[in-house]
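Hi W., the flavin-adenine dinucleotide complex you wanted:
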Amino acid sequence: METQKKYPPTFSFEFFPPKTPEGMDKLRATWRQLIQLKPRFFSVTYGAGGSTRDRTLQAVLEIQKDGGDAAPHLSCIGSSRADLAATLELYRSHGLRHIVALRGDLPSGSAGAGELRYANELVEFIRATSGDHFHIEVAGYPEFHPQARSSLDDLQAFKRKVDAGANAAITQYFFNADAYFRFVDDCEAMGMDLPIVPGIMPIANFSQLARFSDACGAEIPRWLRLRLQSYSDDVASIRSFGLDVITELCDRLLSEGAPGLHFYTMNQAGLVSTIWQRLGL
Ligand code: FAD
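Structure:
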Protein backbone atom coordinates (compact mmCIF):
# COMPACT_ATOMS: atom_id res chain seq x y z
CA MET A 1 0.00 0.00 0.00
CA GLU A 2 3.05 2.29 0.14
CA THR A 3 2.57 3.89 -3.30
CA GLN A 4 -1.09 4.61 -2.62
CA LYS A 5 -0.35 6.84 0.36
CA LYS A 6 1.26 9.52 -1.81
CA TYR A 7 -1.95 10.18 -3.76
CA PRO A 8 -4.41 12.75 -2.44
CA PRO A 9 -7.69 10.92 -1.68
CA THR A 10 -10.29 11.14 -4.46
CA PHE A 11 -13.98 10.64 -3.74
CA SER A 12 -16.42 9.95 -6.55
CA PHE A 13 -19.98 8.75 -7.22
CA GLU A 14 -21.16 6.52 -10.06
CA PHE A 15 -24.57 6.63 -11.78
CA PHE A 16 -26.19 4.72 -14.60
CA PRO A 17 -28.14 6.60 -17.29
CA PRO A 18 -31.88 6.10 -16.64
CA LYS A 19 -34.14 4.88 -19.45
CA THR A 20 -37.17 7.05 -18.65
CA PRO A 21 -37.78 10.78 -18.09
CA GLU A 22 -38.98 9.94 -14.54
CA GLY A 23 -35.73 8.08 -13.85
CA MET A 24 -33.79 11.07 -15.13
CA ASP A 25 -35.75 13.42 -12.84
CA LYS A 26 -34.90 11.21 -9.86
CA LEU A 27 -31.25 11.12 -10.89
CA ARG A 28 -31.14 14.93 -11.14
CA ALA A 29 -32.44 15.14 -7.56
CA THR A 30 -29.77 12.59 -6.51
CA TRP A 31 -26.80 14.41 -8.02
CA ARG A 32 -28.05 17.78 -6.76
CA GLN A 33 -28.01 16.32 -3.27
CA LEU A 34 -24.61 14.65 -3.73
CA ILE A 35 -22.98 17.75 -5.28
CA GLN A 36 -23.28 19.33 -1.82
CA LEU A 37 -20.73 16.74 -0.61
CA LYS A 38 -18.19 18.13 -3.12
CA PRO A 39 -16.94 14.83 -4.59
CA ARG A 40 -13.97 15.06 -6.96
CA PHE A 41 -16.20 13.76 -9.80
CA PHE A 42 -19.28 11.81 -10.82
CA SER A 43 -19.14 9.08 -13.45
CA VAL A 44 -21.91 7.76 -15.69
CA THR A 45 -21.88 4.21 -17.08
CA TYR A 46 -22.08 3.27 -20.75
CA GLY A 47 -23.95 0.35 -22.35
CA ALA A 48 -22.33 -2.20 -24.66
CA GLY A 49 -22.22 -1.19 -28.33
CA GLY A 50 -23.01 2.43 -27.49
CA SER A 51 -26.59 1.59 -26.44
CA THR A 52 -26.64 4.40 -23.85
CA ARG A 53 -24.32 6.83 -25.63
CA ASP A 54 -26.76 9.75 -25.82
CA ARG A 55 -28.16 9.23 -22.32
CA THR A 56 -24.69 8.87 -20.80
CA LEU A 57 -23.57 12.10 -22.45
CA GLN A 58 -26.76 13.94 -21.48
CA ALA A 59 -26.34 13.04 -17.80
CA VAL A 60 -22.65 14.02 -17.84
CA LEU A 61 -23.35 17.39 -19.46
CA GLU A 62 -26.22 18.15 -17.09
CA ILE A 63 -24.09 17.33 -14.05
CA GLN A 64 -21.38 19.68 -15.36
CA LYS A 65 -23.99 22.41 -15.86
CA ASP A 66 -25.05 21.97 -12.23
CA GLY A 67 -21.46 22.52 -11.12
CA GLY A 68 -20.18 18.92 -10.67
CA ASP A 69 -17.27 17.40 -12.53
CA ALA A 70 -18.40 14.37 -14.54
CA ALA A 71 -16.68 11.58 -16.47
CA PRO A 72 -18.47 9.38 -19.00
CA HIS A 73 -17.61 5.69 -19.15
CA LEU A 74 -16.79 4.20 -22.55
CA SER A 75 -16.86 0.47 -23.27
CA CYS A 76 -15.41 -1.05 -26.44
CA ILE A 77 -17.27 -4.35 -26.70
CA GLY A 78 -19.73 -4.44 -29.60
CA SER A 79 -18.29 -1.26 -31.17
CA SER A 80 -16.11 -0.63 -34.20
CA ARG A 81 -13.02 1.57 -34.11
CA ALA A 82 -14.96 4.14 -36.13
CA ASP A 83 -17.80 4.18 -33.52
CA LEU A 84 -15.31 4.60 -30.69
CA ALA A 85 -13.41 7.36 -32.49
CA ALA A 86 -16.71 9.18 -33.09
CA THR A 87 -17.67 8.90 -29.41
CA LEU A 88 -14.26 10.15 -28.30
CA GLU A 89 -14.57 13.08 -30.69
CA LEU A 90 -18.04 13.81 -29.31
CA TYR A 91 -16.67 13.80 -25.74
CA ARG A 92 -13.82 16.09 -26.81
CA SER A 93 -16.15 18.47 -28.61
CA HIS A 94 -18.01 18.94 -25.32
CA GLY A 95 -14.78 19.71 -23.52
CA LEU A 96 -14.73 16.44 -21.54
CA ARG A 97 -11.27 15.37 -20.39
CA HIS A 98 -11.94 12.49 -18.00
CA ILE A 99 -13.09 9.05 -19.06
CA VAL A 100 -13.58 5.57 -17.53
CA ALA A 101 -12.42 3.04 -20.15
CA LEU A 102 -13.80 -0.51 -20.07
CA ARG A 103 -14.26 -3.57 -22.15
CA GLY A 104 -17.91 -3.93 -21.13
CA ASP A 105 -20.12 -7.00 -21.26
CA LEU A 106 -22.33 -8.09 -24.14
CA PRO A 107 -25.94 -8.85 -23.22
CA SER A 108 -26.47 -12.61 -23.66
CA GLY A 109 -27.52 -13.53 -27.19
CA SER A 110 -26.02 -10.45 -28.84
CA ALA A 111 -23.82 -10.87 -31.85
CA GLY A 112 -20.54 -9.20 -32.77
CA ALA A 113 -17.97 -8.47 -30.08
CA GLY A 114 -16.64 -5.46 -31.99
CA GLU A 115 -13.10 -4.68 -33.09
CA LEU A 116 -11.32 -4.26 -29.74
CA ARG A 117 -11.38 -7.33 -27.52
CA TYR A 118 -10.00 -6.07 -24.21
CA ALA A 119 -9.87 -2.83 -22.29
CA ASN A 120 -6.09 -2.46 -22.73
CA GLU A 121 -6.75 -2.18 -26.48
CA LEU A 122 -9.28 0.57 -25.79
CA VAL A 123 -6.79 2.48 -23.64
CA GLU A 124 -4.19 2.14 -26.45
CA PHE A 125 -6.79 3.33 -28.95
CA ILE A 126 -7.69 6.38 -26.84
CA ARG A 127 -4.02 7.31 -26.47
CA ALA A 128 -3.39 6.75 -30.21
CA THR A 129 -6.35 8.89 -31.27
CA SER A 130 -6.44 11.54 -28.53
CA GLY A 131 -2.91 11.64 -27.09
CA ASP A 132 -2.97 12.87 -23.51
CA HIS A 133 -6.27 14.72 -23.83
CA PHE A 134 -8.13 12.34 -21.51
CA HIS A 135 -7.44 11.36 -17.92
CA ILE A 136 -8.18 7.62 -18.20
CA GLU A 137 -9.53 5.44 -15.39
CA VAL A 138 -9.69 1.66 -15.77
CA ALA A 139 -11.29 -1.16 -13.76
CA GLY A 140 -9.39 -3.35 -11.28
CA TYR A 141 -10.54 -6.59 -9.63
CA PRO A 142 -9.25 -7.29 -6.11
CA GLU A 143 -11.18 -10.62 -6.13
CA PHE A 144 -10.36 -11.18 -9.81
CA HIS A 145 -12.55 -10.87 -12.86
CA PRO A 146 -14.95 -13.82 -13.33
CA GLN A 147 -13.50 -14.62 -16.77
CA ALA A 148 -9.85 -14.49 -15.67
CA ARG A 149 -7.93 -17.67 -16.44
CA SER A 150 -5.92 -17.22 -13.23
CA SER A 151 -5.18 -14.54 -10.64
CA LEU A 152 -1.78 -13.92 -12.25
CA ASP A 153 -3.33 -13.62 -15.72
CA ASP A 154 -5.79 -11.06 -14.38
CA LEU A 155 -3.01 -9.03 -12.73
CA GLN A 156 -1.11 -9.09 -16.02
CA ALA A 157 -4.23 -7.99 -17.90
CA PHE A 158 -4.58 -5.12 -15.42
CA LYS A 159 -0.92 -4.21 -15.95
CA ARG A 160 -1.45 -4.06 -19.71
CA LYS A 161 -4.09 -1.38 -19.14
CA VAL A 162 -1.72 0.56 -16.93
CA ASP A 163 1.14 0.21 -19.44
CA ALA A 164 -1.20 1.34 -22.23
CA GLY A 165 -1.62 4.67 -20.43
CA ALA A 166 -4.27 4.47 -17.70
CA ASN A 167 -3.88 7.26 -15.14
CA ALA A 168 -5.90 5.71 -12.31
CA ALA A 169 -8.06 2.71 -11.48
CA ILE A 170 -11.36 2.07 -9.74
CA THR A 171 -11.99 -1.39 -8.37
CA GLN A 172 -14.95 -3.69 -8.57
CA TYR A 173 -16.72 -3.64 -5.22
CA PHE A 174 -15.71 -6.11 -2.53
CA PHE A 175 -16.49 -6.74 1.14
CA ASN A 176 -13.11 -8.16 2.08
CA ALA A 177 -10.58 -5.37 2.65
CA ASP A 178 -7.66 -7.85 2.63
CA ALA A 179 -8.41 -8.74 -0.99
CA TYR A 180 -7.96 -5.07 -1.88
CA PHE A 181 -4.75 -4.62 0.14
CA ARG A 182 -3.22 -7.73 -1.44
CA PHE A 183 -4.28 -6.67 -4.93
CA VAL A 184 -2.66 -3.26 -4.45
CA ASP A 185 0.51 -4.82 -3.00
CA ASP A 186 0.73 -7.18 -6.00
CA CYS A 187 0.28 -4.26 -8.42
CA GLU A 188 2.98 -2.29 -6.64
CA ALA A 189 5.32 -5.30 -6.68
CA MET A 190 4.76 -5.54 -10.46
CA GLY A 191 5.89 -1.93 -10.81
CA MET A 192 2.49 -0.27 -11.28
CA ASP A 193 2.32 3.22 -9.87
CA LEU A 194 -1.17 4.72 -10.06
CA PRO A 195 -3.98 5.39 -7.60
CA ILE A 196 -6.23 2.34 -7.21
CA VAL A 197 -9.44 3.61 -5.65
CA PRO A 198 -11.71 1.04 -3.99
CA GLY A 199 -15.22 0.74 -5.43
CA ILE A 200 -17.86 0.68 -2.69
CA MET A 201 -21.32 -0.85 -2.97
CA PRO A 202 -23.75 0.27 -0.25
CA ILE A 203 -26.08 -2.52 0.89
CA ALA A 204 -29.76 -1.78 0.29
CA ASN A 205 -31.30 -5.06 -0.74
CA PHE A 206 -29.99 -8.60 -0.36
CA SER A 207 -31.44 -10.33 -3.44
CA GLN A 208 -30.23 -7.61 -5.79
CA LEU A 209 -26.80 -7.60 -4.18
CA ALA A 210 -26.56 -11.40 -4.46
CA ARG A 211 -27.50 -11.25 -8.16
CA PHE A 212 -24.92 -8.55 -8.95
CA SER A 213 -22.24 -10.27 -6.92
CA ASP A 214 -22.75 -13.60 -8.68
CA ALA A 215 -22.45 -11.85 -12.05
CA CYS A 216 -19.39 -9.73 -11.33
CA GLY A 217 -17.41 -12.12 -9.13
CA ALA A 218 -17.59 -10.05 -5.92
CA GLU A 219 -17.76 -12.42 -2.97
CA ILE A 220 -20.33 -11.91 -0.24
CA PRO A 221 -18.63 -13.51 2.78
CA ARG A 222 -20.67 -16.23 4.50
CA TRP A 223 -21.12 -14.25 7.73
CA LEU A 224 -22.49 -11.30 5.78
CA ARG A 225 -24.71 -13.39 3.50
CA LEU A 226 -26.27 -15.32 6.40
CA ARG A 227 -26.92 -12.19 8.44
CA LEU A 228 -28.47 -10.38 5.48
CA GLN A 229 -30.59 -13.44 4.65
CA SER A 230 -31.80 -13.61 8.23
CA TYR A 231 -33.38 -10.15 7.89
CA SER A 232 -35.56 -11.48 5.04
CA ASP A 233 -37.83 -8.57 3.92
CA ASP A 234 -36.96 -6.32 6.84
CA VAL A 235 -35.53 -3.52 4.70
CA ALA A 236 -34.83 -1.20 7.63
CA SER A 237 -32.66 -3.79 9.38
CA ILE A 238 -30.78 -4.63 6.16
CA ARG A 239 -30.03 -0.95 5.59
CA SER A 240 -29.00 -0.32 9.16
CA PHE A 241 -26.72 -3.39 9.33
CA GLY A 242 -25.41 -2.65 5.82
CA LEU A 243 -24.53 0.91 6.82
CA ASP A 244 -22.48 -0.38 9.77
CA VAL A 245 -20.64 -2.94 7.62
CA ILE A 246 -19.87 -0.59 4.74
CA THR A 247 -18.87 2.34 6.96
CA GLU A 248 -16.43 0.07 8.82
CA LEU A 249 -15.04 -1.20 5.51
CA CYS A 250 -14.53 2.37 4.20
CA ASP A 251 -13.00 3.47 7.47
CA ARG A 252 -10.48 0.64 7.39
CA LEU A 253 -9.62 1.20 3.71
CA LEU A 254 -8.97 4.91 4.26
CA SER A 255 -7.05 4.48 7.48
CA GLU A 256 -4.74 1.91 5.81
CA GLY A 257 -3.96 4.20 2.88
CA ALA A 258 -6.61 3.78 0.15
CA PRO A 259 -6.47 6.87 -2.10
CA GLY A 260 -10.19 7.67 -1.83
CA LEU A 261 -13.49 5.86 -2.43
CA HIS A 262 -15.72 5.43 -5.49
CA PHE A 263 -19.36 4.78 -4.57
CA TYR A 264 -21.68 2.72 -6.76
CA THR A 265 -24.72 4.81 -5.87
CA MET A 266 -27.37 2.89 -7.88
CA ASN A 267 -28.68 6.44 -8.52
CA GLN A 268 -29.67 6.84 -4.84
CA ALA A 269 -28.27 9.49 -2.51
CA GLY A 270 -29.49 8.23 0.88
CA LEU A 271 -27.08 5.46 1.85
CA VAL A 272 -23.95 7.10 0.43
CA SER A 273 -24.77 10.40 2.16
CA THR A 274 -25.12 8.60 5.49
CA ILE A 275 -21.86 6.67 4.98
CA TRP A 276 -20.16 9.95 4.01
CA GLN A 277 -21.39 11.66 7.18
CA ARG A 278 -20.44 8.75 9.41
CA LEU A 279 -16.93 8.76 7.93
CA GLY A 280 -16.72 12.48 8.65
CA LEU A 281 -15.63 13.24 5.08
P1 FAD B 1 -10.65 -6.18 -19.33
O1 FAD B 1 -9.64 -5.44 -18.56
O2 FAD B 1 -10.47 -6.27 -20.82
O3 FAD B 1 -10.71 -7.66 -18.72
C1 FAD B 1 -11.77 -8.53 -19.04
C2 FAD B 1 -11.34 -9.99 -18.85
O4 FAD B 1 -10.47 -10.37 -19.90
C3 FAD B 1 -10.59 -10.29 -17.56
O5 FAD B 1 -10.95 -11.55 -17.14
C4 FAD B 1 -9.12 -10.27 -18.00
O6 FAD B 1 -8.32 -11.09 -17.16
C5 FAD B 1 -9.25 -10.88 -19.38
N1 FAD B 1 -8.23 -10.44 -20.31
C6 FAD B 1 -7.75 -9.20 -20.51
N2 FAD B 1 -6.85 -9.19 -21.51
C7 FAD B 1 -6.77 -10.47 -21.97
C8 FAD B 1 -6.05 -11.10 -23.02
N3 FAD B 1 -5.21 -10.44 -23.81
N4 FAD B 1 -6.25 -12.43 -23.20
C9 FAD B 1 -7.10 -13.16 -22.44
N5 FAD B 1 -7.81 -12.58 -21.43
C10 FAD B 1 -7.65 -11.27 -21.22
N6 FAD B 1 -19.51 -2.28 -17.88
C11 FAD B 1 -20.19 -1.62 -18.84
O7 FAD B 1 -20.70 -2.24 -19.78
N7 FAD B 1 -20.34 -0.25 -18.78
C12 FAD B 1 -19.80 0.49 -17.80
O8 FAD B 1 -19.95 1.72 -17.80
C13 FAD B 1 -19.05 -0.18 -16.78
N8 FAD B 1 -18.45 0.52 -15.78
C14 FAD B 1 -17.65 -0.15 -14.88
C15 FAD B 1 -16.96 0.58 -13.91
C16 FAD B 1 -16.12 -0.05 -13.01
C17 FAD B 1 -15.36 0.78 -12.02
C18 FAD B 1 -15.99 -1.47 -13.03
C19 FAD B 1 -15.12 -2.17 -12.02
C20 FAD B 1 -16.69 -2.22 -13.97
C21 FAD B 1 -17.51 -1.57 -14.91
N9 FAD B 1 -18.19 -2.28 -15.90
C22 FAD B 1 -18.92 -1.60 -16.86
C23 FAD B 1 -18.10 -3.73 -15.97
C24 FAD B 1 -16.96 -4.20 -16.90
O9 FAD B 1 -17.21 -3.78 -18.22
C25 FAD B 1 -16.91 -5.72 -16.83
O10 FAD B 1 -16.39 -6.11 -15.58
C26 FAD B 1 -16.21 -6.41 -17.97
O11 FAD B 1 -16.51 -7.78 -17.92
C27 FAD B 1 -14.70 -6.26 -17.95
O12 FAD B 1 -14.31 -5.00 -18.27
P2 FAD B 1 -12.77 -4.58 -18.11
O13 FAD B 1 -12.66 -3.21 -18.66
O14 FAD B 1 -12.30 -4.83 -16.76
O15 FAD B 1 -12.11 -5.65 -19.13
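Residues 235-255 form the longest helix (21 residues).

W.
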